[in-house]
Amino acid sequence: MTSRVPATVAYMGPQGTFSHLAARSLFQDRPALEAPTIAEVVDLVGRGEAELGVVPIENSTEGSVSATLDALLDGALFICGELVLDVSLCLVAKTADRSRYRRVASHPQPLAQCRKFLARELPGVPLFPTASTAAAAREAALDDTTAAVTSRLAAELEQLTIVADGIQDHPENATRFAVIGHADAAPTGNDKTTLVFSTPHERGALRRVLEIFDDAAINLTRIESRPARGKRWEYVFVTDIEGHRHDPNVAQALARLENEGGGVRVLGSYPQAKK
Amino acid sequence: MTSRVPATVAYMGPQGTFSHLAARSLFQDRPALEAPTIAEVVDLVGRGEAELGVVPIENSTEGSVSATLDALLDGALFICGELVLDVSLCLVAKTADRSRYRRVASHPQPLAQCRKFLARELPGVPLFPTASTAAAAREAALDDTTAAVTSRLAAELEQLTIVADGIQDHPENATRFAVIGHADAAPTGNDKTTLVFSTPHERGALRRVLEIFDDAAINLTRIESRPARGKRWEYVFVTDIEGHRHDPNVAQALARLENEGGGVRVLGSYPQAKK
Residues A217-253: pLDDT tens digits? Predict the structure, then answer.
């Protein structure tokens, strides 16, 4: 009898980040590896030290969307799944006595996401930027005059008091995570494809690409231009489309896109997350 | 005789960030105000405590592009200028003896930008994520077993030794900064306009918008879809186009865009930075 070793999952730590929460919610009891940056997560999967990685890809509270795209463009990995995580920010501290707080720690992005709350509830308390929401919880655990804006998970890991929950100014706050691995997913009939394309450097080039998708009855769900590596002020486009790269209309559109001459690379097809 | 008080400029600190470098390069000797986050920079200008603000807007080493857009979309300010800054990352420490380094500190994004260099030159030395490149320099100044990836300015401010310069894996590394204020700039004949538009939620809507720009002979230099505030998985598009909003072809295209029914907001017209 052989015992199968469960797949290892890599995520960007420290423990208690929203990436950690996403990894736990996708792969409950599998062994997890923590890495200090998104690029390291991608490297761990690339070297086979983890079978899969979980990285934030859109609207992240960890300021990491471009880091994820850069790492995926540099490597040879595929996106094989996605997860949409509701991000609820908590104000936490060792003590619930707000008059004790001398600073509020968090990553700059969550600090920005709840600045109306902070201006109203903790007026005049200085902000203290940290590298992650989990690092902010760590600061609060070490010093009872520091409050942190962080996840419920980080508060629990650091045994902090949750002073207020759901403090973000815009209640609808979600982060999309990608699961990355050495292959993408098989078609399910309800899929999404992430791809990167460049266009010839001439006016109307992007419009012609959108016509290709339109003609094939393909919906775009995201488009983003990004500076091309090593070519200053030339751009590539990162796009999410509905459908799997093996669906006939998508396959045909991708073939037409390649013929346009700009270059296209599929980062993966995978089942659409529930919204 | 009256002495005119020079305008105050706000930037995201701490001192030595690339934002600080950009503010110095644009407004040499004007009084400068440091704020802990991009949102605070925007607030300082909004409340009139600073006349202008300098915020990173594209390809930032400070992970802040979305924070800048969110803050601009929330407020009533305009972009009135831009600056393109060459970003050269340095490895710095109190000592040039690399065998002493027990960790390398920096913001996750610059750590990712020079990870090939770090893997080659400092193999096995753990990465330590910080809130900014300037915070990393601070760590190195406090502890001689910590090296930092940071700017030359931060190294000088903290009196650290520059061990290696230009260590980023892709030599072409630039960040675009926006100058923000209560009005945008007058036409110069070589301008750019940043705008945000939404489209009706139907296939082909973006293609129709691009046709409007195309018909008016307007070049797009950037496009990015972003989640609309408060409307989960609806998107707005942030776009840079060539031309000033008072140029006749741009003014006409903007009017046509408004008639499309999705909504458009001009964040400002300003002279194009030299490339």
Answer: 999 988 888 776 666 556 788 899 999 999 999 999 9
Q: Annotated catalytic residue: which of B17, B146, B175, B193?
A: B175
- In chain A, residues with a C-beta closer than 8 Å to the C-beta of B222 are 225, 235
Largest CA distance in chain B: 65
Question: Residue B67 and residue A214: Cβ atoms within 8 Å?
Answer: no
- Mean pLDDT of the residues in chain B: 88
- Answer whether B64 touches A (CB < 8 Å): yes
**CB-nearest partner of B67 from A108, A127, A214:** A108
Residue positions counted in chain A: 275
B175 an active-site residue? yes
B130, pLDDT greater than 50:
yes
A59 and B CB contact within 8 Å: yes
Q: Is the pLDDT of residue B194 over 80?
A: yes
Place of tokens 């399910």: A188
State the ipTM, two decimals. 0.74
In CATH, what number does B191-271 get?
3.30.70.260
B78-120 pLDDT tens trace? 999 999 888 899 999 999 999 999 999 998 778 888 888 999 9
What CA–CA distance (Å, rounded) separates B44 from B41? Answer: 5
Contact B64 A64 (CB under 8 A): no
| Backbone torsions φ then ψ of B55, nearest 5 degrees | -135, 140
Q: Is the pTM of this model over 0.80?
A: yes
- Residues of chain A found within 8 Å of residue B58, distances taken between Cβ atoms: 227
- The answer to whether the bond into A110 is cis (omega within 30° of 0) is no
pLDDT at B6: 55
Q: Which of A27, A78, A177, A197 is catalytic?
A: A177
What pLDDT does B1 receive? 42
Distance CA A9, CA A135 (A): 21
- In chain B, which among 75-104 make CB contacts under 8 A with chain A? none
DSSP string, B168-199: -SSS--EEEEEEEESS-PPP-SSEEEEEEEE-
What the block records as the tokens of A272 is 């659409």
* Chain A with chain B: Cβ pairs closer than 8 A: 147
Rounded to the nearest angstrom, the minimum Cα separation between B261 and chain A is 19
Q: Report yes or no: A128 at the B interface, CB cutoff 8 Å.
A: yes
**Residue spans of chain A under pLDDT 50:** 1-4, 63
User: What is the rounded average pLDDT of the residues B241-249?
Assistant: 96
Out of A40, A113, A131, the one facing B131 most closely (by C-beta) is A131
Q: Report domain extents, chain B.
A: 9-87+173-181, 90-165, 191-271
B18 catalytic? Reply is: no
- A67-76, A102-111, B3-12, B175-184 — which is least confidently predicted? B3-12
Fold of the domain built from segment(s) A90-165: D-Maltodextrin-Binding Protein; domain 2 (3.40.190)
Architecture category of domain A9-87+173-181 in CATH: 3-Layer(aba) Sandwich (3.40)
Cα-Cα-Cα-Cα torsion A193, A195, A201, A207, nearest 10 degrees, comes to 10
